[in-house]
Amino acid sequence: MKDNSQETTHFGYKTVDKAQKKSLVAGVFDSVAAKYDVMNDVMSFGIHRLWKRQTLDASGVRKGQRILDLAGGTGDLTAKFSRIVGPQGQVVLADINDSMLKVGRDKLRDMGIVGNVEYVQANAEELPFPDDHFDAITIAFGLRNVTDKDKALRSMLRVLKPGGRLLVLEFSKPEHDVLNSLYDFYSFNVLPQMGGLIANDKESYQYLAESIRMHPDQETLKQMMEDAGFEQVTYQNMTGGIVALHRGFKF
Amino acid sequence: MPAQALLNSIAERVLNTALAADPDSAGRLKPVRGKAFRLQLAELPWPLTLTFCEDRVLFMGSDYDAIDGEVQTSFPVLRTLTDASKVTAALQNGTLSLQGDPIFAQHASQVILGLNIDWEEAFAERLGDVPGFWLAQGMAKLTSLKPDPSQWQQWLGETLSEEKKITLGQVEYAIFCDDLTALEQRIRNLEAGGS
User: Is residue B13 less than 8 Å (CB to CB) from chain A?
Assistant: First the structure.
């Protein structure tokens, strides 16, 4: 008998074939790429910049290191990493979506960030890099869109150097019921309307809200990272648990 | 965390705007480029962690752990970092704690303390020549009105010792010390005579 759970996955609240999810997610991000930064600022009231700052702090990145900014989108973290690692270091901005990568590349070049940044279109489940290659890996608001998260975590572990760390910044589960209710109302009533008004794309932002709810909560993701082989895994809730930053090491 | 990140974000914007307006900032950033410096001031709730880049400074949070040098002190002692002899004295009397290379700490402090901005030009670039000129003039006037702490100290000393006679003047203090020495000598003589 065929095990159906091995063949299907979530796309928001819908159940779709695993093979189909990649193209569906690609469709969402092709659609939102041009307005991605504006929408992030509007939807989060600019707080996403503070969440990313915290990710940068937890990364411990220093001069001369090699960093992978996975699902790096429009390059917010890459810009900061590039300045810290300097000309002796290297930052790889990787994203599965070509439209996002193009927006990110244009934005960083306009900011004068060139020389130590490389752009790679890559699937997180099968990273095209050698073993033990990066000092740190970040994936910010990207893991929930990956079809096989366990496989992606194992792939990240493989390309991370011993002593290196992985940081996963992702929407998570609010700690308090009241906040959870307010957040639900905002996500399913306000967010899609804003997506419709600003990006002319209500459906993509409906998917965003649904994909956040389907993403593993703090403890589940911690366990997934440990199962993949990461050690000393910890997480830090931000803004009441709306977002969580998980950190794990490879030894 | 968000409050710290928000304040760091604002401080970073302000400092980098100032550094961009200072033509000498690149020279001061050069010796500290790629390094991170942490300043823990007794008056602040969290440490200031600065990472120096080619043309700017990034404010990191207290979780950032790749630090090259750290100074723990208070606001009043902070300015002594520019003077090597005073740094030594502060280290000896325990008002300053330093981890890492002292030269790096001095260079790091100079990035901020050495700011020298042509306000007229900076304002003119953003607001136009005439408003820039007026604003710069206003700032110069305000700076000249700033009280000089050494003058205040002199005024306070004279008022207390000369006018109000609450404390002793320098001459009176010297006479008092001489009298005290003479008294000590007399006591010793008496004790010697008695024994």
Answer: no
Q: Contacts of residue A80 in chain B, CB cutoff 8 Å?
A: 58
- Asked if A86 lies within 8 A of B33 by C-beta distance, the reply is yes
Does pLDDT of A3 surpass 70? no
Q: What is the pLDDT of residues B22-33, one digit of tens each?
A: 888 888 899 999
User: Is A237 known to sit in a ligand binding site?
Assistant: no
The reply to whether A190 falls in a domain is no
- pLDDT value of residue B82: 65
Structural domains counted in chain A: 1
Average pLDDT on B104-113 reads 83
> Counting every residue, how long is chain A?
251
B5–A54: do the CB atoms touch at under 8 Å?
A: yes
Helix, strand and coil in chain A, % to nearest 5: 55, 25, 25
Say whether pLDDT at A97 is over 70.
yes
Q: What value does the mean pLDDT take over residues B170-192?
A: 88
Burial class (CB within 10 angstroms; exposed 0-12, middle 13-18, buried 19+) of A68:
buried
**Amino acid, res. A163:** G
d(CA A237, CA A179): 13
Q: Provide the residue type at A26 as one letter.
A: A
Domain of residue A84, CATH code: 3.40.50.150
Best residue in B38, B48, B53, B57 for a mutation probing chain A (most A CBs within 10 Å)? B53
